[in-house]
Specification:
Chain lengths: ~130, ~250
């Protein structure tokens, strides 16, 4: 795991983006880009070299689930680790996200320990694959 | 315009008859002329009354069919009340959590500042050369620095928790946005009801945006429905992280 890993954090609430960015900084990650919905995130992903995507679900414009589907449908991005960080807590929604290929799912409000554990787990799975 | 359509064509003869009967002081003729005049009024008034009644009935039917007033009144307004109450609870909890963390951090900072001030004062009074051979200053300074490291770690952890506590703004913001959408919908419906009460033709008003995807809670699975609010909705909620992980693991990627 490298702390130069490039993260893209997508959330329509700037406060939540700052929170996630702050927590990632605490975990040692400093290369973090922000986007406020899927429509702004997707071009960044296609043109950048991001190694980890953290996205909200419920956003104006393109919601997180559609962004996830677009990522999985893009051959260059298909293997990108995607952690969904969302308030959506319905069982059927979690199943839908899993079917769409989400790498991890954390429900807000969350703890720093949960975020770290999920990121570590996803990266470990990726390394083992 | 034909003679029958003009005011003169429709009423002059009646008025002339009335004036003639009045001049002749003929009450029976006056009453007869008056009845004919009233009948003419009724002929013209009835279609207008029928139109107004039909408009009102149509508008009421449209409200019943489209406006979901019953749904709004019975479910979504009470839901909105519960959502706002939940927002109050979220903000209150976040404020208390932040204040608790500030209160926990303050004594640690105060203790560090006090110890550092005392050590500096002694250092200033005596200077390094004046310290007695058996002075405890170096040991006390060492202990203080060790405590500083521990306290700094505590404060760093408290600050991290304060950072997370601000997440309430995201959750409460999503809930408030949903309530704003409901208020906008109610505004449209109430505006049309007021217009209806004033006798305006609601058929000329903009169509109500009351499709199922528009009002809260959003039912579009792709877009999500916002944070779970206790007492609102009937879906099965999963909040335990182990359950979420198990659910994710149980679903194979297509």
């Amino acid at each position: 795991m490298s702390n130069t890993m490039k993260f893209l954090v997508v959330d329509d609430f700037s406060t939540m983006r700052r929170i996630v960015k702050g927590l990632l900084n605490e975990l040692g990650y400093s290369d973090i880009t922000e986007a406020d919905d899927g429509n702004t995130a997707l071009p960044l992903l296609k043109n950048g070299s991001f190694e980890f995507l953290i996205t909200d679900w419920n956003m104006p414009g393109m919601p997180g689930l559609d962004l996830l589907k677009a990522v999985r449908a893009d051959a260059r991005l298909a293997k990108l680790p995607v952690l969904m960080l969302t308030a959506e807590a319905k069982r059927e929604q979690i199943i839908e996200a899993a079917q769409a290929g989400v790498s991890g799912y954390v429900i807000k409000p969350f703890t720093a320990a949960t975020l770290k554990e999920k990121i570590d787990k996803i990266l470990a799975s990726k390394a083992a694959a | 315009m034909s003679q029958a359509d003009t005011l003169d064509g429709r009423y002059r003869s009646h008025v002339t008859d009335l004036a003639g009967a009045l001049d002749a002081n003929d009450e029976a003729a006056f009453r007869a002329a008056f009845d004919r005049l009233r009948a003419q009024f009724n002929v013209e008034l009835n279609p207008e009354l029928k139109r107004i009644t039909a408009d009102a009935m149509s508008a009421l039917r449209r409200f019943r069919e489209q406006a979901r007033l019953e749904v709004l009144a019975d479910h979504e307004v009470p839901d909105a009340r519960r959502r706002l109450a939940h927002v109050v609870k979220l903000t209150e909890e976040a404020a208390h959590r932040t204040l608790d963390l500030v209160e926990q951090s303050s004594p640690l900072i105060d203790r560090r500042a006090l110890e550092a001030a005392q050590l500096l004062e002694e250092w200033g009074l005596h200077g390094s050369r004046q310290l007695a051979v058996n002075s405890m200053w170096p040991e006390r300074a060492n202990d203080s620095l060790e405590r500083a490291v521990r306290d700094a770690e505590h404060v760093r952890r408290f600050l991290s928790q304060m950072l997370l506590a601000q997440g309430y703004q995201d959750l409460s913001g999503q809930i408030i946005h949903a309530v704003i959408r409901l208020v906008m919908e109610l505004e449209t419906v109430l505006g049309q009801l007021v217009s209806l009460a004033h006798g305006e033709d609601t058929r000329r008003m903009p169509a109500l945006k009351l499709e199922p995807t528009q009002p809260m809670p959003l039912q579009d699975g792709s877009r999500g429905s916002g944070p779970h609010v206790p007492g609102v909705g009937t879906s099965q909620i999963v909040s335990d992280q182990d359950d979420i992980d198990a659910l994710i693991a149980s679903v194979g990627r297509p």
